[in-house]
Amino acid sequence: MFGEIARFLIDTIFTLFGAVLLLRAWMQVIRMPPGNPISRGVFQVTDWLVLPLRRILPGYRGIDWASLVAAYLTALVFLVLMVAAVGGQPALLFPLGLLIALLTLVKWALNLLMWLTLLMAVMSWVNPHSPAMPVLDYLTTPFLRPIRRVLPPIGGADLSPLALFLIIQVLLMLLARGGFLLFGM
């Protein structure tokens, strides 16, 4: 039972932290204004890891490489801790663990987008004038805009968040299936 609790806590903490690092990188790609409370919170949580890496890995063409590398390192540490929590040998992860960490990072990014889209859709029904709505809209619009071109509103209802949610679910299934086929996971 203790091992199960440890795995749950490791999974939750590292997934959330990895998602916040990916969110930081995404916010810089889309040039989100840094003054909003969400941006400030993301920077406060991640500065301790990203700022030292930024000395080595500066941003290039709007991509925050320090945040992406920090997220990748977080995924590597996550894998090592998960293998250790089940009594495995973390050293046996390498070199295949490097690819598994990359797949973990993609899974975190897809889950982050799914949760942001879901939160935006719920907030648009419950409280469309919430201060969080412009931030959520700013984060999700680059993904929703191409879908909106293909799927216009039906009866005044924007179905693009639902379509994006379904696309993400299919991608997560393919990712899980690909990981299973490649690694026997």
TrEMBL record:
Keywords: Membrane, Transmembrane, Transmembrane helix. The chain crosses the membrane at residues 7-27, 65-86, 98-126, 162-183. It holds the Pfam family CCB3_YggT. The keyword GTP-binding does not apply. GO terms for cellular component: membrane. Signal peptide: none annotated. InterPro entries: CCB3/YggT. This is YggT family protein. It comes from Pandoraea thiooxydans.
